[in-house]
Amino acid sequence: MSAREPNISSGFWRRTTAMLIKEFIQLRRDRVSFAMIVMIPLMQLVLFGYAINTTPRDLPTAVLLQESSDLGRSILKALENTRYFKITHQVTDEAEFDRLIQSGNVLFGVEIPRGFERALRRGEKPALLVAADATDPVAAGSALGALNQVVRTALQNDRAVPDAGAPSFEIRQHARYNPAAETALNIVPGLVGTILTMTMLIFTALSVTREIERGTMESLLSMPITPIEIMLGKIVPYIIVGFVQAALIVGTGILLFGVPVLGSLWLLAALSTLFIATNLSVGYTFSTVAQNQLQAVQMSMMFFLPNILLSGFMFPFAGMPTWAQWIGEALPLTHYIRIVRAIMLKGSTLAELHYDAIALFFLMLVAMTIAVTRFRRTLD
Amino acid sequence: MTVAADIAIDVHGLTKSFDGRVVVRDLSMQVKRGSIYGFLGPNGSGKTTTIRMLCGLLTPDKGDGTCLGYDIRTEADKIKLRVGYMTQRFSLYQDLSVRENLEFVARLYGIPDPVGAARAMIQRLGLQGREEQLAGSLSGGWKQRLALGACTLPNPQLLLLDEPTAGVDPKARREFWNEIHALAAEGLTVLVSTHYMDEAERCHEIAYIAYGELLVHGTVEDVIEHSALVTYTVSGEDLNGLLHELAGKPGIDMAAPFGTSLHVSGRDAAALDAAIAPFRSRKGLVWAKSEPSLEDVFIDLMSRARDNFQ
To answer: Which residue has the higher pLDDT, A187 or A155?
Structure first.
């Protein structure tokens, strides 16, 4: 065979190189992929490096003062000195104290009982009650571990205490809602939100771009249908899909892991529907912005990542710096995780969850407004 | 602007550019109700853009006009209800069946009995037995028929067909045109863009557009007459050699092979006669004066438009 004869067994490198050059050219043209290559590692590094803290400090704490004394103040100071607790609320009413923990405004409640100082001075070793919201065992764990230190150091400068060497009071811990600190109780409700975010985003993120890519959008636009009608028509079927999915996860969680549903199932269903609709709206917004289906998927990934890291699903929300908490507040998953944990583990009612419900509704309206304005009725 | 009741499309000075490139320039046209209006021109000449401006899918940069008496700028919603637009690329849902596609269209237009309307259209299209087949798996000819069926289902007054027969075999093409003539006979106005000269000759009126400008319009006879082109048909031996000798000679504006003969045309009869005189007596060649074909006229128009354009 002569050298000029085309031959498939030679020229391996030439053909591979041709393919390689073509791929590089296409990658360079695809700006969103290019941005992903840079943005994903940067975002991960910044979030993991600065925002995420598995031994969170400055956790919001409420104090129930049933007597006012210098001793009590010294103990509270010692609590704050551990840097795990940050006293955000001081209350004198027990019902208010319970409500703060129930609603998730604080993670800890410290109760200094009546007659504490007197009992202490008599050497009766009175008990200080520390209630913890254990729906997130990671957040509560290290702070509770630091409590023993408080017992030792709190009163060492106080001359009024008879024997400074031995512990003069005890701390009674009460891990509320998840006393055994089971991880499954924390993970399963969070997974409901995470799985719904992932699947709902992808469903609608592809919906408009697929019509544009397949050419069906041109004929759809030439027919008498409005952008809102198109959007609602595309979102509503997936609300049902999402609902089935949520029921599946919650049902499996109950059957396999014994996760309780202390609150109202109806409330859970209603707020889950709201959360599903919010995510579908966000996905739909991506699909009106993306140029093609690949871009839509990439945008969904870029949105999904902070949802996982900053929502309180994997890492304690209260342990994040303020800027990260602000980003977290803008993500639907943050609010839903609070809702679903509160309803399932704490038996919370709408009265305690209205802030997160309104936030979800607001985020849905924002996404829908962007989607409808971004949706072009013409091919201009 | 007064709109006569018998005018379906009446637009003036339409101009549209994309990224600073003018695609349609100062285009005016009138289409009579009930007529089949052929829209011809090379690729990229602005046919699709014009059609999209007519049905409200694009907003013209300049110019205005009416479509079925409705303003193309402000009453796109009313136009959409009464116009059937068949896109160049198959734009029904490939993953829906024939029946499901037609029912979807019927529901969008608010037809009272969508299921019945879809079934009637399947009968009319001769698609019985294929109604459950996915639209994506139909052959090219059937896809075109289905697309036409979907356009006509809501009983539009105007059909805009953008190269409906591109890539369709001659038999399907003929059936398609018979259908269009039947629809026009029922009073529908049809604007159809095409590349095929034989299809142009099936239209009541034609317009030729190149580089975004409408160059000529009228009946086929008008257009040929208007061109003032003189054409000779040459048959004989070594026409390929002759073509090379003639090309570019002053007085010869166009020379192109047509099957076994050669068409030689010029706009100036005297100059053309002078140019071909030395070849007329050549042995083995038969020269005959003939009518220019529509294709001769269009290629001539296009080359002149390019001269103006550059």
So the answer is: A187
Q: Is B230-291 a CATH 3.90.75 domain?
A: no
Chain B residue closest in CA terms to A230:
B108
Task: Say how far residue A209 (Cα) sits from the centre of its chain.
Answer: 28
Condensed to tens digits (0 to 9), the pLDDT of residues A320-374 reads: 888 888 999 999 999 999 999 889 888 888 888 889 999 999 999 999 898 888 8
Q: Looking at residue B2, what is its pLDDT?
A: 46
The residue of chain A nearest to residue B17, with distances taken between CA atoms, is A380
Among candidates A216, A225, A379 on the partner chain, residue whose Cβ is nearest the Cβ of B52: A379
Question: What is the CATH code of the structural domain delimited by A59-176?
Answer: 3.40.1710.10
Task: Write down the pLDDT at residue B107.
Answer: 94
Residue contacts between A and B (CB atoms, under 8 Å): 47
- Whether residue A229 lies within 8 A of chain B, CB to CB, comes out as no
Of A215, A225, A379, which is closest to B89 when you measure between CB atoms? A215
Mean predicted lDDT score pLDDT of chain A? 84
Cα–Cα distance for residue pair B275/B171, rounded to 1 Å: 42
Give backbone dihedrals phi and psi of A108, rounded to 5 degrees, phi first: -130, 150
Min CA distance, A217 vs chain B (Å)? 8
pLDDT > 70? residue B24? yes
The CATH superfamily holding the domain B7-223 is P-loop containing nucleotide triphosphate hydrolases (3.40.50.300)
Name which of A295, A173, A282, A305 is nearest A231 in CA terms.
Answer: A282
